[in-house]
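Late entry, 1,3-dihydroxyacetonephosphate complex.
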Amino acid sequence: MSKEEWLKKGFIDEPIDKSIDLKKAINELRKEKNAVILAHYYQQGDLQDIADYVGDSLALAQWAAKTTADIIVLCGVHFMGETAKVICPDKKVLVPDLNAGCSLADSCPADRFVQFVKEHSEYTVISYVNTTAAVKAVTDIVVTSTNACQIVESFPKDEKIIFGPDRNLGNYINSITNRNMLLWDGACHVHEQFSVEKIVELKKQYPNAVILAHPECKSVVLKLADVVGSTATLLKYAVKSDKNEFIVATESGIIHEMRKQCPQKTFIPAPPNDSTCACNECNFMRLNTLEKLYNCLKYEFPTIEVDEKIAKEAVKPIKKMLEISRRLGL
Ligand code: 13P
Ligand code: SF4
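Prediction complete; structure with ligand written out below:
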């Protein structure tokens, strides 16, 4: 197949010899090419296990900023690869499957957001990292779910702020920081899906369970939660807690690391509304596989490319976020 055909598909579907030990081959390729593999907690377990680093969106950006590798393979979704590329324009950044998008980032098309920002020129623009580089390019500071409340709090109480694109996270920050940020009306299809009724049912079954929820969930779900936080925050809480049972209302990939770090504890995925499935998976995150990772390392393809002018602007609010996070010790 030609590179053009691969590009159309978004990944390399070159058949892999069945006799190849994929994990061994990936390890050899990573060494030979001086590549680092970064994986998000929502990746399938085998990708998390083979990665050099597994973390939340903030940690992925932080590792990208400090790596000395020549190639970064981002096992995550497109905006995560873009963020790494914007931070490291001279490095090759690969994502095993370019089709790994994000419904939340898609809910904020750059042209409409630019117009919105223009119409509110007196506002400071704070964007969630789950956005395209073009949206970041018109942003004053980027946040992730780990640092969002603290970064918003670093602005004066009367600062006029636009927050986009996640309305649930925005409402949550408004409630915690007692602000009235102007919110973009976007959402994540995974986190909006959690069923209040099914979580209440689970809580009856496991009355001692702690309910953990990501702030991208709807406020009705967050009201039920004992702990609200980013993937890394929820993981840390579960590890430190003296409790043994947890109902987890975020993408179920995080449970892989939770079980690894706390094999004696019970983690129950919160179920979505309209499915017979017991857990909620991000179909974009799950597009990456060990086979695609192998092919992408072998052929150094597909790469993430960002328009130079956009990257020059987008890097500023990302670097601001990294600097504040460093000062906050995050
Ligand atoms: P984290 O910031 O917790 O990694 O969340 C990323 C994400 O995509 C949530 O849906
Ligand atoms: Fe985007 Fe939601 Fe998937 Fe996170 S879980 S990558 S916000 S679609």
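Residues 77, 102-104, 130, 188-191, 251, 282, 284-285 surround iron/sulfur cluster (ligand 2) (CB under 6 Å). Will revisit in the morning.
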